[in-house]
Specification:
By secondary structure, the protein is α+β, with helices and mostly antiparallel strands. The protein is built from three helices and four strands.
C-alpha cells in the first residue's frame, strides 16, 4: 500500500491532503486492480491489470503524483486518472474485500 496526497471532499478519517492507494486481486477476474481512498472509507478501483507488477507500478505512480502535489484541481485529478493504462474492465469488488481494504487504509496511518 502506498500513501500520497490530494484534496478530499468527504469527511476525512485520513489527514487533510492525504490519499492511500494499493492493489488487490479481483476474486473472479483475477486481474490486479489499483484502488485509492481519500478518507479511508471510500475505496475506489481505478485500473485493472493482468500482471501484479503493472498494478504496483501504477499505485506507486499515483502515490508519487499526490505526494509531489502535481494535481490540484478536480479536472487535473480526473485527467490524470483517465490517463492511467489499464488492461481491462474494472470490476466491482465484493463488500468484504472493500471492508478489508478500508481497514488497511485506516491502519496504515497509525
Amino acid at each position: 500500500m502506498f500513501k500520497g496526497f490530494s484534496h478530499p471532499k468527504k469527511k476525512a478519517v485520513l489527514e487533510d491532503n492525504e490519499l492511500t492507494t494499493g492493489i488487490v486481486q479481483h476474486p473472479v477476474t483475477l486481474r490486479w486492480q489499483t484502488w485509492i481512498s481519500f478518507t479511508g472509507h471510500d475505496i475506489g478501483c481505478i485500473t485493472a491489470h493482468n500482471q501484479r507488477e503493472d498494478a504496483n507500478k501504477i499505485a506507486k505512480q499515483i502515490a508519487d503524483a499526490w505526494s509531489k502535489g502535481k494535481y490540484q484541481t478536480q479536472e487535473e485529478v480526473t485527467a490524470f486518472i483517465k490517463s492511467l493504462p489499464t488492461d481491462g474492465v474494472i470490476d466491482p469488488l465484493p463488500q468484504s474485500i472493500v471492508m478489508q481494504l478500508s481497514q488497511q487504509a485506516l491502519s496504515a496511518r497509525k
